Amino acid sequence: MKVMLVCGARPNFMKVASIISAIDDYNSSSVSAGKIERLLVHTGQHYDGKMSQSFFDDLGLPQPDVNLEVGSGSHAEQTAEIMKRFEPLLRKEMPDVVLVVGDVNSTIACSLVASKTAYDVRSNGGASRPLVGHVEAGLRSFDRSMPEEINRILTDAISDFLFTSEESGRENLLREGVGEDKIFFVGNTMIDTLLKHRARSRESSILENLGLSRKSEATVQPYGVVTLHRPSNVDDRNVFGEIIAALAEVARKFPLIFPIHPRTLNRIKEFGLEGNFRSIEPGRRSLDVAPGIYCIEPQGYLDFMQLMSNAKLILTDSGGMQEESTILGVPCITLRENTERPCTIAYGTNHLAGVRKENITNLTFRLTAGTNANKRPEAPPLWDGSAGKRIIAILAEKLIREHNSEHVILERD
Ligand code: UD1
Asked: Ligand 1: which residue has its CA nearest to atom 9?
């Protein structure tokens, strides 16, 4: 069986890391029914070292077999460019399965190409077309102004295997008419990677480098972590201004460390908001980071995990951090009106604040006034480090064992 794995943007790398590791485990297991050949494709949607290569280094990922090097562009340009470059690769490699993860433009672009590609040469007796698997299927914010929501709905509609990470995924897919037999509740691949690398992340020296702790003393200065990159939050001058005003008020109580996404940095410059930020001199050793919002570069995976784990609070519009903070037990204030990950609210420490200054500051001060009282002890079901293994076991069962062959002929529905 040949599996083509697609990644393109920062949050994809943690998800494919779990699946690659599961494939390697499967291949080295004596009970495997056949080998899985894997091909890792990077679309090049994210390309800066800090947004891409540093994750490959931190996670010990193999270099991509192919990089399509599409770069940035409008949604149409980026999606179309990925599709154009992906199609000949697919025809050349003829994988049995294309696995896409998450909800970025690379996800919809490659699933759309794969779902419409029929192989015209079947010299190896392989599949007549690739089957498409969507990892993190069924999540819905019910907000179609989010480009990711469109990507999710469309990818799910054309996928053959829908691997869900939380129970809401199944309900949403069934409501949309997806057949029960296509839905597999496997757990969360991003959490697989978090659990695998958590111990290593504790060796990071990011806290000392930022002056938030001293290695000789076990003390860590209270601080919050902020990330923002959603177009709806940072591309609108008024919304972004309101969020920054809320952050400035919070930052009077304790410093906020803000690793800046390139999109957000561009907007800060464009809107002339630089005056709201202080910078940290890397390598300082003191424990005296004063109140303020501190912009730093995007961080690698292990440093960022250490930064999140020790924070008093996280303020974010990211999807993945809502999940990671649930497992880390750090209160998370989500700067959005909705979440496609409702289990992080039910099981975790996640709270929706929207983007109004008063809501953000009130919630922040309420959550940081006492101890972490909202934390529930248990993790969401199947967020146990084995989601990647479940995905590979399901694919192997369907494509190798059931057909008792490494290459099978699968026809369209
Ligand atoms: C994308 C995803 C979003 C995901 C986010 C994670 C889509 C529609 N959006 O948003 O779901 O949460 O990645 O970061 O796929 N840029 C750089 N260097 C890079 C990459 C981007 O400077 O390596 C800049 C470019 O100016 C680019 C902008 O950031 O135009 C936005 O990048 P893009 O990939 O279009 O979207 P993100 O905002 O990163």
From this structure: 104
Q: List b or e across 67-83, with b for residues whose CB sees 16 or more CB atoms inside 10 angstroms.
A: bbebeeeeeeebbebbb
pLDDT digits (tens, 9 = 90+) for 296-309: 999 999 999 999 99
Catalytic residue among 42, 46, 229, 261: 229
Please tell me the residue having the least CA distance from ligand 1 atom 27. Answer: 72
More reliable by pLDDT, 97 or 123: 97
Q: Tokens at residue 356, please?
A: 């109004």
Q: Is the pTM of this model over 0.85?
A: yes
**Candidate from 106, 141, 235, 261 with most ligand 1 atoms within 8 A of CB, to mutate:** 261
- 2-188+383-411 and 205-367: same fold? yes
Q: Where are the domains of the chain?
A: 2-188+383-411, 205-367
Q: Is 351 a residue of the active site? A: no
- Closest atom of ligand 1 to 106 CA is 15
State which amino acid sits at residue 353: A
Ligand 1 pocket at CB < 6 A: 9-11, 45-48, 51, 72, 103-105, 147-148, 229, 261-263
Atom of ligand 1 nearest to the CA of 151: 8
Report the nearest-CA residue for atom 4 of ligand 1: 104
Range 2-188+383-411 classified under CATH 3.40.50.2000: yes
| Whole-Å CA distances, 45 to 3, 48, 107, 109, 173 | 21, 10, 11, 11, 27
Mean pLDDT of 65-84: 98
Q: What is the pLDDT of residue 120?
A: 73
**How many Cβ atoms from other residues are within 10 Å of residue 348's Cβ?**
26
Mean pLDDT score, 270-282 = 79
**CATH class entry, domain 205-367:** alpha beta
- Beta-strand pair 37-42/2-7: parallel
pLDDT, one tens digit per residue, over 186-226 is: 999 999 999 999 999 999 999 998 889 877 677 888 999 99
Q: Closest residue (by CA) to atom 13 of ligand 1? A: 9
